[in-house]
Amino acid sequence: MTPGNDRSGGFGPDLAEVFGPSQHDGGPELVQLLTPEGERVSHPEFSFGDGMTPAEEAEMIRGFYRDMVLTRRIDTEATALQRHGELGIWAQLLGQEAAQIGAGRALRPQDYVFPTYREHGVAWCRGVDPIELLGLYRGVDQGAWDPAKYNFHLYTIVIGAQTLHATGYAMGMQRDGAVGTGDPDRDAAVIAHFGDGASSQGDVNEAFIFAASYNAPVVFFCQNNQWAISEPIERQSRIPLYQRALGFGFPGVRVDGNDVLATYAVTQAALQRARDGQGPTFVEAYTYRMGAHTTTDDPTRYRLSDDVERWRLKCPIERTKAYLQRNGLADQAFFDDLSAEADELGARLREGCKNLADPSPLSIFDHVYAEQTPELEAQREGFAAYLDSFEGAH
Amino acid sequence: MTKITLAKGLNMGLRKAMEDDPKVLIMGEDVGKLGGVFRITDGLQKDFGEDRVIDSPLAESGIVGTAVGLALRGYRPVVEIQFDGFVYPAYDQIVCQVAKMRFRSMGKLAMPMVIRIPFGGGIGAVEHHSESPEAQFAHTPGLKVVACSNPIDGYWMIQQAIACDDPVIFLEPKRQYHADKADLDEDAAPEPLFRSRVVRRGGDATLLAYGPTVKTALKAAEAASGEGRSLEVIDLRTLSPLDMAPVFESVRRTGHAVVVHEAHVNLGLGAELAARITEECFFSLESPVLRVGGFDTPYPPSRIEEEWLPDLDRVLDAVDRSLSF
């Protein structure tokens, strides 16, 4: 703002000045505990490793690193499988590994996750077999894992719709007396994943309102990867997303989404607030979509490779590796073993993907209703007879 | 025996369902202290508490979307949409999420949710308060759609819908809420939910109606009997799935069928009924299946709504055309 040029005209401070440059570089509000160069830094409110021995802390960071490397391997294998025609499409998470692993590892078993269609890293943390993630993208099912087994809901494609489901689920936890009892094995929270594009959706804003109104134990975890297919974050918001939370009546925080330690620390704190009965929190994980929106997308049409290169220097995996190596927390054998494990996982994924068989055509009629309706039974019988009328039919 | 209105029947049914199952919740705008704008939930928050009768923020997608989450957590939410014309903000949640959850999870997730919608016109309301959106939901696989027409059905059907493990769009003819009284026998065995019912026997033509037009059809049948015509009236009750067996049986006897609904005729339930009757009763039909309904216009201003709504005379006119074909 030019000094003396009050453009707000009596409506308070100039918003461009208030929100200013933080839009573009993460800004001074960004919570960071591990720099892109792999240096640990401290933050006045959030920290990592409290109450752990150095050995436990190193073990945990090696675990995060392993999670991120294997998650990236799942992503690159799946992308390749799409290129080979084994998947119809794939939604890549390249660059968002720290945001997902940090958030995923902050969960307790009793917490519940509502993912988008890109939360492959969170799925990994919940124990979902990555082969089960492929079914949706191969077109053999619409999510085959049992959500109740992993406390990990099916992927939701409609942008932002799951934030309301998460809020309702959290309201259910409140009614079940699973919030604010002080029992760490009982108190639970929900985490709702969504992206910067989804922040424009009515459902997401309604979820904020419901969660605030009922003080629901839900963490709204937004991976701001800067792009909603071709539309930059500036098309969705004039202010840093995390600042929206205040308008809804709950805290928001922007964390370096490429910093697994900070993402873990912030998400864990937000989940604990929720479990303790203190209500919702908005976490904006500031990150970057290094790949395309999906394998059908071509980002060279709408963004500069310079930007991508700038973010490559902030790679979540490289900074963690640099930290581990520089501090002698992982030896070469660790990295070699992990590399072999990733290769094994890749091979298992390729094999598993090709073994995902097409469902039977008659399965179309299954599970529309709790009990088959006479109408659908008749359609099924008619279709079965029609199929049987062909020579050499199954 | 208690004399009850439809509003009372629904209220009693909701109360019974909440007593029987602690997982049953009511959600909606003004359903708590006020008891809903039509008083259907009157007194329930007082007796069951704010955790079970939940006044929601004013956002229909939010109501249905959070109800999805509650259902996933094991609750049985009964959602009130205040008026038919306000269901559309929730349309995405209903059609994309509620309807498909069981199918896409291959049976692992259930959506035992009831979405109550006061529907239909005739109350002199402003726009968006008198609509009949049933075809939009009957067209959606995964949803079940029912419409009650009288106090006794209101009492039983709402309980059955709540007990159903599938999502049920529950249509209530708002014009009938406080119109008529009937004797409720709480010990009687109710008819199954997804069954049509012959409500008046007759041999000359079959009238098919549901919700608010059942009363219209019964009046028309009464008037026709004065002219020596015997009309059979079927209350469809279930719109998805349709229960066609009583319809086919009737039309095979009468040879004539007239569908009566308030919804626009174009691509309404009547079109589906006509197609199915034609497919199954072709050689019994003595005339084409006729449809009487709202015109294919937006709902009109209320001072002329009675012209738009199918009434006794338009039903009888259709019967005349059918019988003289």
Would you write up a description of this structure?
Chain A has 394 residues and is an alpha/beta fold. Chain A has 2 domains: 23-41 and 52-354, Thiamin diphosphate (ThDP)-binding fold, Pyr/PP domains (Rossmann fold, 3-Layer(aba) Sandwich), CATH 3.40.50; 360-394. In chain A, 45% of the residues lie in helices and 8% in strands. Chain A has helices at 15-19, 22-25, 54-83, 97-105, 120-126, 130-138, 147-150, 161-175, 202-214, 233-236, 244-248, 260-275, 305-312, 316-326, 332-354, 374-388, and strands spanning 112-114, 190-195, 218-224, 227-228, 231-232, 252-256, 281-286. A 5-stranded parallel beta sheet of chain A has the order 1-2-3-7-6, with helices on both faces. In chain A, strand 6 (252-256), helix 12 (260-275) and strand 7 (281-286) form a beta-alpha-beta unit. In chain A, helix 3 crosses helix 4 and helix 8 (161-175) runs parallel beside helix 9. Chain B is an alpha/beta fold. Chain B has 2 domains: 2-184, Thiamin diphosphate (ThDP)-binding fold, Pyr/PP domains (Rossmann fold, 3-Layer(aba) Sandwich); 197-323, Rossmann fold (3-Layer(aba) Sandwich). Chain B is built from 12 helices and 14 strands. Chain B has helices spanning 6-20, 44-48, 60-72, 91-98, 101-104, 134-138, 151-163, 213-226, 245-254, 269-281, 305-308, 312-323, and strands at 2-4, 24-28, 53-55, 76-80, 114-119, 144-147, 168-173, 182-184, 197-200, 205-209, 231-235, 238-240, 257-264, 290-294. Chain B has a 7-stranded mixed beta sheet, sandwiched between helices. A 5-stranded mixed beta sheet of chain B has the order 9-11-10-13-14, sandwiched between helices. In chain B, strands 1-8 form a two-stranded antiparallel sheet. In chain B, helix 1 (6-20) packs parallel to helix 7, helix 3 (60-72) packs parallel to helix 4 and helix 8 (213-226) crosses helix 12. The longest helix of chain B is centred in the first third of the chain and has 15 residues, at 6-20. At the A-B interface, helix 8, helix 9 and helix 16 of A face helix 3, helix 4 and helix 5 of B. Chain A: This is Pyruvate dehydrogenase (Acetyl-transferring) E1 component subunit alpha. Chain A: Residues 66-342 form the Dehydrogenase E1 component domain. Chain A: InterPro entries: Alpha-ketoacid_DH_E1_comp, DH_E1, PdhA/BkdA, THDP-binding. Chain A: Its cofactor is thiamine diphosphate.
